[in-house]
What we know:
Blueprint: E1 2-8, E2 13-15, E3 22-23, E4 29-35, E5 40-46, E6 49-55, E7 60-63, E8 68-69, E9 75-81, E10 86-92, E11 95-100, E12 109-110, E13 116-121, E14 127-133, E15 136-142, E16 147-156, E17 162-168, E18 173-178, E19 183-188, E20 193-196, E21 201-202, E22 208-214, E23 219-225, E24 228-234, E25 239-247, E26 253-259, E27 265-267, E28 276-279, E29 283-284, E30 287-293, E31 305-311, E32 316-322
Antiparallel strand pairs: 1-32, 2-4, 3-4, 4-5, 5-6, 7-9, 8-9, 9-10, 10-11, 12-13, 13-14, 14-15, 16-17, 17-18, 18-19, 20-22, 21-22, 22-23, 23-24, 25-26, 26-27, 27-28, 29-30, 30-31, 31-32
Amino acid sequence: MRLTPVAETGKRFRDFSPYVASISDSGVVAFQASLAAGGSGVYVAQGGALTALAETGGPIADVHSHPDINAAGACCFYGRLNSGEDGVFLIEQGQVATVAMPSGPLGPTMNEAGAVAFRAAHASGIAGVYLGRGGQTTTIADTRERFCAFQGLPVVNRDGLVAFRADIAAGGQCIEVGDGVSQRTIVATGEEFQDLGFFPVMNDSGVVGYRATLRNGVSGLFVTSNRSTNRILDTSGPFESIRGLLLNNAAEVVFFATPRGGRLGVYTGPDHAKHRVLGLGDPLLESAVADFALNPVSMNEAGQLAIRVKLDDDRQFILRADPA
Length: 324
């Protein structure tokens, strides 16, 4: 893949960590940044230009999550108002709207219709997964009965279905898909699986991808479609550990894994030499990669990626990776 820097730390930006960047289907990259002058904001990179969507000094006092951006340019994130209240916010056509308050521990995700999936914890102690759209909030799942906790990032597809990872109150873990009316289990720990990854992914066809560890200790990447599950990669082959995956509507898969005797990297296929995008220790921009991050919002339908990278010389970059 071809790697293009779209933003870097220096005079304007102090820090991009710990959040990832997202990329729309039109190739626009959105990212959170801490400013060298103080404060933070959400920024988009398009055609070589950087634009601030929200920045300290406006209605948003602070941004504390990754943003997610759709093809229409709408962008959602967790942040804090000047009044000190935390919430999930949506910027659409230059206007800031509150999706819900309070906010959650990670960034939200959004579909092309502007429906926002997010986690939130309440003062009552109840935590949940929610979907906000059109000024209304729907509870997808919460900790009142079956579940005791939620992990990772909920993702929403074009039909308003939300996939999420949960801990079960009676014991075990599961990945579920629901819309607030009905819900089904995609996979649960038990006889076959002993552990499920925190970050499931789902495309618009309802195909769900996830990392899981089998009872025999082998970890792998799995996709479930129409109640049929396929293993696409596991640690019995050339990779000694697997972290997770990204998935788009074309069923293209990008994953993060460590080859045997090697270092963690991003891959577009099973050949760790041929399909490596970048990884720890790789030479880049006159230095070497010390850290990188991406999650389910970091891949679009064209197979482009948005990657946050830190180099050995402490510079940080937001990169767009384009298929060659």
